[in-house]
Design goal:
Length: 315
């Protein structure tokens, strides 16, 4: 029996007979990947939930603070980690010092060049520059102790056909696979309204065609509501999902006020059915990071976001 299975079995057996042992049992269950919810009677009922660490994007922190103080702020607010852009202009030594001092993790980075210089660009020099930036992100992420670099694999537009985006982006990504192997950092593709890879089955096929363990998917729950339902994407991508981005989206606002207005809605006020998302994640055995990618702000706003994230994963 695997240690994780043993822990789950132990918690199941223990919590069935224990009354009022909330704190201790919750700690054991958390380690085993089980959400434990006290009932009105005081009996602890184990409920299988995805084990998720909470992160957010660096640019969401709007208070005028030093790197160290921003890390302290996020740790105090209950976040487990924060994702930076790469390449960026932050002092890596300061970042690592803040990580080590506060214990706030750096689970991964977001490549900062994939929009300005897409891997699908007609100009091979621009593609090469983007590839070089992803290589730097992979190496930076290793230094940070992270495990993924988020990459938008290509952009389809009036000057780039779907087939061209597919072929060019895969060719550039293949050049990076040796670096991913060397660093141990995976390349995680994300769909961000780039008019490319707009169905879960196609996205899964795109990943699988590399036939390589160092590529996967960074699944954004809110982004895909323009194209379909999050549960369908979770089912289709399955174990290819490396990390999660969290945002909300309202189809009603999109239809009535314009496409981008769909994002102008708080968690639980849009069309992301979070209980069903949780069930789908549980079904594929997801365990890992979830990063908020919404409008940030000051301490009060960031606390609200973290509390909403807590609510999402007990929904």
């Amino acid at each position: 029996m695997q240690r994780r299975d043993f822990l789950k079995s132990s918690v199941m057996a223990t919590t069935a007979a224990v009354v009022g042992a909330g704190a201790a049992t919750s700690a054991i269950a958390s380690n085993a990947g089980i959400y434990v919810k006290p009932t009105a009677s005081g009996i602890i009922n184990p409920m299988a939930k995805p084990m998720v660490k909470k992160s957010l994007k660096w640019g969401m922190v709007k208070e005028d603070l030093s790197i160290m103080d921003k890390f302290k702020l996020l740790k105090d607010l209950g976040y487990d980690g924060v994702e930076l852009d790469s390449p960026d202009n932050l002092d890596l030594k300061e970042v690592l010092a803040a990580r080590d001092k506060t214990g706030l993790e750096l689970p991964g980075t977001v490549n900062s060049m994939h929009w300005k210089l897409p891997l699908s660009d007609p100009d091979p020099k621009k593609r090469a520059e983007c590839t070089k930036s992803i290589e730097k992100a992979l190496r930076d992420t290793k230094k940070m102790g992270g495990t993924t670099v988020l990459v938008v694999p290509g952009v389809v537009n009036a000057n780039v056909t779907y087939a061209e985006a597919y072929e060019r982006s895969q060719a550039e990504i293949r050049k990076l696979l040796p670096v991913a192997e060397e660093t141990g950092v995976k390349i995680a593709f994300e769909n961000v309204w780039n008019q490319f890879l707009i169905s879960p089955l196609e996205a899964a096929r795109y990943v699988d065609e590399f036939k390589h363990p160092m590529v996967g998917w960074y699944f954004d729950v809110g982004n895909v509501l323009r194209y379909g339902w999050p549960t369908s994407w979770i089912e289709g991508l399955n174990k290819r999902i490396l990390k999660l981005d969290l945002k909300e989206f309202s189809i009603k606002k999109q239809n009535e006020l314009g496409l981008w207005k769909g994002f102008d809605v708080e968690f639980f006020d849009g069309d992301c059915n979070w209980p069903e998302v949780n069930k789908a994640l549980q079904k594929i055995g997801y365990s890992g990071w979830a990063s908020a990618e919404v409008a940030g702000g000051d301490r009060k706003r960031l606390l609200t976001i973290r509390e909403k994230m807590d609510a999402i994963f007990i929904a």
